[in-house]
Amino acid sequence: MWESVDAATEARNFAGIWGIDGPVLLDETGEYAAALGIRGVPTNVLVDAHGIVRGVGLTAPQELDEAVDALLAEE
Amino acid sequence: MPPAVPGDLYRPPFESRPPGQPDGMDRMDRMDHADHGASGADGPACAADLTHRILARVPVGMGPEAVVVDPVGGCAFVACSRSNGVTAVDLERAMVRWRAETGREPIPLIHDAPTGRLFSADARSDTVTVLRADTGERLAQVRVGEYPSGLGYHPGLRRVYSGDTAAGTVSVLDVDRMELVGTVPAELGAGSIAVDVTRGRAYVANFMSASVTVFDAQTLQPLGLLPAGNGPCKVVVNPVADHLYVANSLQGTVMRISLATGEAIDELPVERAPVGLCVSPDGRWIYVCNRGAGTVSVLDAASGRESHRIQVEQAPGDCAVDPRTGRLLVSNAGAGTLTIVDRPWLSGPAPAATHPLVGRPLPAFALPDAHTGQVRTTREWAEKKYVINFFASW
Predict the structure, then answer these.
(1) Domain identity same for A2 and A34
(2) Does A34 share its domain with A4?
(3) Do A15 and B385 touch (CB under 8 A)?
(4) For residue range B354-369, what is the model confidence (pLDDT) as tens digits?
(5) Using H for helix, E for strand and C for coil, what is the string for B28-55?
(6) Same domain, A29 and A6
(7) Mean pLDDT: which of A9-13, A26-30, B322-326 is highest?
(8) Which H/E stretch holds residue A35?
C-alpha cells in the first residue's frame, strides 16, 4: 500500500472498505516496492511456483484473469 | 511510504547561470532553430536534441496530487494531500517559494488569475480553502459536500465547482465572495469537473457510477448523463478540438467525446491507472498521467493516437502545462515531487517493453501483516503461484 502517513491504519481501513480478507503486508519504508521496481499503484506482480516473476502490471481485470489462468494451466 | 527522493536529484536547471547569461532553455531553443534552418550539420555545436528532457524534480511535500500554473507570476502550485497543504514552486528557479496549510487532504486546485486566489478542495475536511497565490495567506474556508475531490472553474461566471465524491453532488462557489451559492445533483463518486466555456456546460466525472453528469454552468440545471468507462477519474475540455476527454482509471483508457454532440468518438489505450489529464494550450497534445506505471502518455489530439511516453516518478497524479514555455509539470503523488519536463511533445528513449523483473526471481521479503503484526516471508509462499497486489486508497 502506497501511503506516506499512518500507513497501517490506512491499509486496515482500505482493506475493510473493500472486503480484502487475505494477508495485507506493510512496506512502510517503500524499500520492497523499490526493489521490485514498482513505479505506481495499482500494480500486480504475478509469481510462479518456482518463485519467478511472470508478470508485472496486469491491472485490467481481463488482463489479470488471462495471466492467472495461463499460469494455473501450466504443469 | 514511498522511497525518499535523494536531495541530489534536485538540480535547479539554471542555478549556476551568471546573471545576464542565457539559460539552458535559451541555448536549447537556438540549437533547435539552427538545426531546422539552412545551415545543416556543422558538428557538435549544431547537433539537434530532439527529445524531451527532465529539467528538474522538485521536492514539494507528501502526496502531491495536483498542480496548476500561474504563468504571469511564474509559479506552479501543488496540492500536497498528505501534508495538508499547498506548495508554491518558482518555475524559473525550480525552488519552493512558500508552503501554506489547507484543510485535510487537499486534492485538486484552481487558480483564479483576476483575484490572485487559489482554491483547494480538502477531501477529508469537506471544505474548499481559499489562499492568496502570492503569499499563501488563508482568506477563507468554505464548507462543501462530503469528500470533495475535484474542482472545476468558469472564469466568466466567476464560479468554482466542487465535486463532492461521497455526497454525489457538486457544490458551487462564487469566486469573488468566496461563498457557497448552489448545489447540483450528480452521481456517486462525483469528482473532477471540466467546463466548456463556449457552451456554458460543465461535466462531472462520477468515479463510482461510470458516468459523466452534464449541467448548465450558469443555471445549474442538470442536462443529462453521458456513459463513461470504469473509474472515470479526470475530465478535461479541449476547446480547439471541441472534445471532452475522460480518463477511465480502472480500464487504462482515455475516452474522446464530441462536445458538440455528446457522442463518444473513441477510446484510446494508455497505461495503468490514468488519473490525471491536461491539454496543451494549442490543443494539439493531451498529457495523461498513468499513476500505476509512473509515466505520462502523450496523445496526438488530431489523430487520437499515443505519440510517446515520458517516464516521470512514482504514481503521477496530475499535470499542467506552463503556457509560457510549453513545459509539462507533473505532480508525483508517490515520490513527493514535481517533475518539470522540457519540450514534452518530443519523444525520448523508448521504454522497455517488458518490466525488468519479469523472468527473474522475486526478491525475498519479510514484512508485517497489517492486521496481526505477524511477519510474513517469501518462504511461506514457496512452491505456490500467487499475486502480490500493490494498491492505493485514492
Answers:
(1) yes
(2) yes
(3) no
(4) 899 999 999 999 999 9
(5) HHHHHHHHHCCCCCCCHHHCCCCCCEEE
(6) yes
(7) B322-326
(8) helix A31-36
Q: How many CB atoms lie within 10 A of CB B27?
A: 12
Chain B residues whose CB is inside 8 A of the A57 CB are 272, 292-293, 355
Residues B259, B261, B262: CA angle, nearest 5 degrees: 65
**Residue of chain B minimizing CA distance to A44:** B389
pLDDT at position A9 = 86
Out of B2, B361, B370, the one facing A24 most closely (by C-beta) is B370
Beta-carbon count within 10 A of B350 CB: 8
Of B291, B357, B371, the CB nearest to A41: B291
Asked whether the beta carbons of B176 and B156 are under 8 A apart, the reply is no
- Residue B202 CA to residue B187 CA, distance in Å, equals 14
Q: Which residue of B lies nearest to A43 if distances are taken between CA atoms?
A: B390
| Residue of A1, A2, A66 for testing the chain B interface, max B β-carbons within 10 Å | A2
Tell whether A57 and A68 lie within a shared domain.
yes
- Count of structural domains, chain A: 2
d(CA B202, CA B224): 11
Residues A46 and A35 in one domain: no
- Which residues on adjacent β-strands are paired with residue B262? none
Residue range of the domain that includes A32? 1-39
A29 and A46 belong to one structural domain: no
Could you tell me the pLDDT band of residue A20, with boundaries at 50, 70 and 90? confident
Residues of A whose CB is below 8 A from B3: 29-31, 33-34
Instruction: Report the mean per-residue pLDDT for chain B.
Output: 88
Interface test with B, best of A14, A54, A59 (most B CBs within 10 A): A59
Say if CB B129 and CB B109 are below 8 A apart. Answer: no
What letter does residue B23 receive in the DSSP assignment? -
- Asked whether the beta carbons of residue A37 and residue B357 sit closer than 8 angstroms, the reply is yes
- Chain B partners of A1 at a C-beta cutoff of 8 Å? 370, 390-393
Q: Same domain for A35 and A47? A: no
Q: Does A55 sit within 8 Å of B292, measured CB to CB? A: no
Is the same domain home to A33 and A47?
no
Strand, coil or helix: B299: strand
Q: Which three cell numbers stand for residue B175?
A: 469566486
CA dihedral A17, B295, B191, A56 (to 10 degrees): -20
**Which of A1, A13, A21, A38 should be substituted to probe chain B, the one whose Cβ sees the most B Cβ atoms within 10 Å?**
A38
Give B112→chain A minimum CA distance, Å.
30
> Tens digits of per-residue pLDDT, B74-91?
999 999 999 999 999 999
Write the CATH number of the domain with boundaries B53-342.
2.130.10.10
